[in-house]
Sequence to fold (147 residues):
Amino acid sequence: MNESNIQKQCPNCRFPISRGTGQSLRTSCAICSTLYRSVFFFCWDCQRKWKSSFANNDNCGNKKCAIRAALLSMAVIEEPSSSVRGCPYFRACPFCYALVTHTNKGCKMISCGQCNKYFCYKCLSKGYCKSCSIVDNTSSLQALDLL
Fold:
């Protein structure tokens, strides 16, 4: 299992928090709970304050939790022969913001399965690019109002 699935930082204070496999997404931070004198819960996946009133479910109540979690994921493409090696595993199409992944075959240009438009998986450019660098998913998170 990937280390990032076992330990993450509290989104409020950045203190490292550990979580066992199979536990609820509802996670508490002892540091923030002490500071606020009230238990501080956050969602393990989307890294935002827990909004739902249900304690034992895996629905935090935050909009687009799964999309944000995927874009924040630390998973990267590791296939040695891939043209997008080192890129985040999940991307948001820069046209329609649908979640996409690369097949690890062929070039860095891909077609979105939802809007059918082409873009560079590596730098998220909407047009063809000759040479580029890998960018993180920050621009997608901003466009989706998920930062």
